[in-house]
Write a structure and sequence with these properties.
single chain; 5-stranded parallel sheet; 19% strand; elongated
Length: 174
């Protein structure tokens, strides 16, 4: 039996202009280039289409999959069990749910803690704010890091949080 070609793909909920998504995309692309393997990606994949796109890549022979779909991995879970001969890398899940799944984490909470700390120190009014995207586990951890940092700098600080229910829409945040 001949060797199976290794091919990598990234399925991205955001587009590559999104600061988080571009890091997942760039890392996956660089890893594939350094390994000398083919790489493709799909960006701005709607969560409702995610399972279909995952399966299409696997049916086309892709056997390494990078996903940036934090908090919505149910569509990948089914495929991970059905396609047990592929490697799947997913972001910020508490633990792998299948032997062929690995977790990567950006540790955003560390930077958010520092941002909160600086905001707590810099506030002249004692009131600061933060804007989140969706309330996925990684966003909650990041917001908690921000809050903890702000409270460490100023225990009396008032923190106003809001969520915009989008991954990347700068005009909506303004």
């Amino acid at each position: 039996e001949g060797k199976r070609e290794i091919k990598a793909a990234a399925i991205l909920v955001g587009n590559v202009e999104n600061p988080y998504t571009v890091n997942v995309y760039s890392g996956a692309k660089k890893a594939a280039e350094e390994a000398g393997i083919p790489f493709e990606y799909s960006e701005a994949v709607d969560p409702a289409d995610y399972e279909r796109v995952v399966r299409e890549y696997f049916e086309r022979g892709f056997n390494i999959l990078f996903s940036d779909m934090s908090g919505y991995h149910s569509s990948i879970k089914k495929a991970a069990n059905e396609y047990d001969d592929v490697a799947i890398l997913v972001s910020v899940e508490p633990e792998p749910w299948a032997p062929n799944v690995s977790i990567y984490d950006a540790w955003f909470q560390d930077g958010c803690y520092l941002a909160g700390y600086l905001a707590g120190l810099a506030s002249k009014t004692g009131v600061i704010g933060a804007v989140g995207s969706y309330m996925t586990p990684d966003v909650v951890v990041s917001m908690n890091g921000y809050i903890e940092g702000a409270k460490a700098a100023n225990p009396d600080v008032v923190i106003r949080l809001t969520n915009v229910e989008t991954w990347f829409d700068p005009p909506k945040v303004m």
